[in-house]
Design goal:
single chain; alpha/beta; Rossmann fold; 2 domains; 8-stranded mixed sheet; two-stranded antiparallel sheet; 6 helices; about 25% strand; globular; disordered C terminus
Length: about 220
């Protein structure tokens, strides 16, 4: 049975495009939901022939009402795994409980370092020499869920924040589809008390560690 992927996005949708362009193996993107009117992610989905929908968070009285609309859309599409690809909203338990352990996000730092917004700027201003990106399971915290995969990106002497953002984003475009493919392939298993991802690493600089994900909720 093929895995059905739902993608949530808010902006330009470059990570969505990376997923659309990638070979996801036994998985298909069956739904894209965008929460910001005019976001390019919506046009990218439509150009790829993927069902897409705009659900504006500003049209709802509170986060829970908006999240209920997200759940309704994702369930209507029969989604098994939810992927946040530049989705700039903190999810409430309304969504988390509907897809327990089945929501993943890509974040532009080597978590747990530099969670939250402007992660590349945080790394740059902290003076660290290596940063990167992380794909993790989404939980109730801010970028605190179990780490699935990480890829390192060195900070060069000549870098500006914009340079660093661009290079980290390029690695995100490799790492996120690779992790989605690995989940769809079932290459996730616990070993020696520390969950790991079985199979080739998606990037030479990647460090992988994947918790076992629960079965989709009917």
């Amino acid at each position: 049975m093929r895995m059905r992927i739902g993608v949530l996005a808010s902006g330009s949708g470059t990570n969505l495009q990376a997923l659309l362009d990638a070979d996801l193996g036994p998985a298909d993107i069956v739904s894209v939901v965008v929460n910001v009117e005019g976001a390019k992610a919506l046009a990218r989905a439509e150009a790829a022939g993927v069902p897409a929908r705009l659900i504006r968070h500003r049209d709802f009285a509170d986060r829970e009402s908006f999240d209920a609309a997200l759940v309704e859309a994702l369930r209507a599409a029969g989604v098994d795994l939810v992927v946040l690809a530049g989705f700039m909203r903190i999810l409430t338990p309304v969504v988390l409980d509907a897809f327990p352990g089945r929501i993943i996000n890509v974040h532009p730092s080597l978590l747990p370092a530099f969670p939250g917004v402007d992660a590349q700027r945080q790394a740059f201003e902290a003076g660290v020499r290596i940063t990167g990106c992380t794909v993790h399971v989404v939980d109730a915290g801010v970028d605190t869920g179990p780490i699935l995969a990480q890829a390192a990106v060195p900070i060069l002497e000549t870098d500006t924040v914009v340079d660093l953002q661009r290079r980290v984003l390029a690695v995100e475009h490799q790492l996120l589809p690779a992790v989605v493919r690995a989940i769809a392939d079932g290459r996730i298993f616990p070993a020696d008390g520390r969950p790991r991802l079985r199979g080739p690493e998606p990037d030479p600089g990647a460090v992988l560690a994947c918790p076992s994900l629960p079965e989709p909720t009917p």
